[in-house]
């Protein structure tokens, strides 16, 4: 990833509370969209996956200003369930993104429902992960 790119986040990482507990800070965030992609619910978990869909556009945020240690930490957080790709974004921007490699539900992930019902407990799960990942 060059200095001109960012990280396109579309799920739990778009929430400042999650970023803060993982990184110890909230980096710069700007709204972003990726045409040709859809944010899908995943079976049995509260986080989503980004899957290709030529008829859709995924809404998310573009994170900029991550240092190399933060990039490595977020890569470890996403683990091998995702692969990394650079996607074209609206406004001529581009961003690295975590693309889901497994099976997804037929329904879109709902960030409002996540914020209302899952965010608090998810942040605590992230806190535990972060304490164990040094």
TrEMBL record:
Gene3D superfamilies: Gamma-glutamyl cyclotransferase-like. InterPro entries: AIG2-like, AIG2-like_dom, GGCT-like, GGCT-like_sf. Residues 7-107 form the Gamma-glutamylcyclotransferase AIG2-like domain. It comes from the Bacteria. Keywords: Transferase. The keyword Transmembrane helix does not apply. Coiled coil: none annotated. It holds the Pfam family GGACT. One of its GO terms (molecular function) is transferase activity. PANTHER family: AIG2-LIKE PROTEIN D. This is Putative gamma-glutamylcyclotransferase. It comes from Actinomadura macrotermitis.
């Amino acid at each position: 990833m060059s200095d001109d790119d960012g990280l396109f986040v579309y799920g739990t990482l778009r929430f400042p509370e999650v970023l803060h507990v993982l990184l110890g800070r909230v980096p710069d965030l700007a709204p972003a969209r990726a045409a040709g992609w859809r944010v899908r619910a995943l079976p049995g978990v509260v986080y989503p996956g980004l899957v290709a869909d030529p008829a859709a556009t995924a809404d998310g945020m573009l994170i900029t200003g991550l240092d190399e240690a933060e990039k490595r930490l977020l890569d470890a957080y996403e683990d091998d369930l995702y692969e990394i790709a650079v996607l074209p974004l609206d406004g001529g921007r581009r961003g690295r993104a975590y693309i889901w490699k497994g099976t997804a539900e037929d329904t879109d992930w709902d960030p409002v429902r996540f914020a209302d019902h899952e965010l608090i407990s998810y942040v605590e799960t992230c806190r535990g992960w972060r304490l164990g990942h040094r």
